[in-house]
Amino acid sequence: MKIIECVPNFSEGRNQQTFDAIKNAIDSTPDVKLLSLEPDADYNRVVVTMAGNETGILNGAVNACRAAAANIDMRNHKGEHPRIGAIDVVPFVPVSNVTTEECVKISEEFAKIISQELKVPVYLYEAAARTPERKSLSNIRKGEYEGLEEKLKDPNWKPDYGEPIFNPKLGAIVTGSRFFLIAYNVNIKSTDVKFAKEIAEVLRESGYSKKDENGNVIKIDGKPLKVPGRLKEVKGMGVTLEKYNITQVSMNLTNYQITPIHVAFEEVKKEANRLGVEVIGSEIVGLVPLQALIQAGKFYSNNKETDGKKLVDIAIENLGLSYLNPFIPEEKIIEYMI
Fold it and tell me: Rounded distance, CA 87 to CA 90, Å?
C-alpha cells in the first residue's frame, strides 16, 4: 500500500471553529487519516498532518483547504510566522512504497484543482519547482502576503497554476513535494550548551565559520570562510533542556536515506567522546517512518535480525529513544497510526 503524508500549514492559530471545520473535512474523506492538528496562537498558524493513499491524500488535502478557505480571511491576519496566504504551504511527502516523483504529480493535480476552484495563484516548490529560484519556500514567500499584490505584477513571479491576480482574502498557495523530515535530538549529559553547539556545528551540512587564533571570524571578500559539516541533509544546533538538566544536539534530518538516524546518533557520540562528555539517549519529535527505524535496527543487529518488530525494538533500545519519555511505536511510527 502506498502511503503519502500531507502537512498543510494554515494561517489561523486561534479559532476553534476553523480547526473543527478542517478536522471534519478530513475525517469525512475516505482513505485518509488525520494524524495531528497543532495550532500555535503566537504564530497564528495551525499545522495539520494527514496520511493516506494517492486518492485519499489528494481529496483530503483539497477538502481541508476548502474548509480553511471558507473560514480564513488574510485581510484580518497577523502572526509571527512568515506566510503568503491563508493556505500557506501544502507539501506532499512520500512515506511508504511511493516516490517523490509520484508525490510531485499529486501536488500538481492539487494545484490545478485548488487554483481553479478558489481562484487563487499557486506556486510549486522543492521537488516540484519548475525554476531554481522557486525551489526554496522562503524565496517564494519573500514579501509575504502584504507584498503579494505587487509581486504578482512581476512576470518572473507568474504563478505555476492560476492567474496572476491578487486574491485579498486568500493570498497565494505553495505546494510541492519534499522528503520526510525527521526532527531528531541527541541528549548530552551536561548543562553547558557549548558542547552541544560545537557538535552541531561540526556535523550539520552547513558547517561553521572558521575563526582565527583570537576567535575572530575569518572573512574572504567580506564573506565568512565556512568549514562544511560532515553530515549531508542535516541541520543542527545546540539547545538547553533545563527541565532535565541536560543539553541536546537538535537536528532536522531532511533526508534519512542520505543520513540515517543511527549515523547521526553515532557521529554525535564520536564528537561527544572527543569533547569528554557523555551521550544519554535521544528522542524523535513528532512522527517517524517505519523504514528509518528498520535501518537503525539492522545496523545495531549487524544485519542478523530480519523480524520487523524486533528491529524496531533494537533501534529504540540502542538509540535510547525512551530516555526522556517512553517511545510508543503505535503513537510515533506513521505506518502504525494508519
Answer: 7
For the whole model, what pTM was predicted?
A: 0.77
Which residue is listed with cell 523480524? 307
3-state secondary structure of 81: coil
- Please report, in tens digits, the pLDDT of each residue of the chain (338 residues total): 899 999 999 999 999 999 999 999 999 999 999 998 988 887 789 989 999 999 999 999 999 999 999 999 999 998 877 899 999 999 999 998 999 999 999 999 999 999 999 999 999 999 999 999 999 888 999 999 999 999 999 999 999 999 999 999 999 999 999 988 898 999 999 999 999 999 999 999 989 888 878 778 788 887 888 889 999 999 899 989 888 999 999 998 999 999 999 999 999 999 999 999 999 999 998 889 999 999 999 999 999 999 999 999 999 999 999 999 999 999 899 889 87
Q: Which long-range contacts (CB under 8 A, 24 or more apart) does 328-334 make?
A: 332/284, 332/287, 332/288, 333/287, 333/288, 333/289, 333/290, 333/293, 334/3, 334/5, 334/35, 334/51, 334/95, 334/287, 334/288, 334/289, 334/290
C-beta neighbour count of 168 within 10 angstroms? 11
> Residues 53, 31: contact at Cβ < 8 Å?
yes
Asked if residues 133 and 127 have their Cβ atoms less than 8 Å apart, the reply is no
Class of the CATH-defined domain 3-177: alpha beta
Domains 3-177 and 182-337 share a fold: no
> How far is it, in rounded angstroms, from Cα 250 to Cα 259?
15
Rounded-to-integer distance, Cα 27 and Cα 78, Å:
28
Q: Using DSSP, how many helices (H) and how many strands (E) does the chain show?
A: 11, 15
User: Would you name the residues annotated as active-site residues?
Assistant: 81
Fold of 182-337: Alpha-Beta Plaits (3.30.70)
Cβ atoms 40, 11 nearer than 8 A: no
What ranges do the domains of the chain cover? 3-177, 182-337
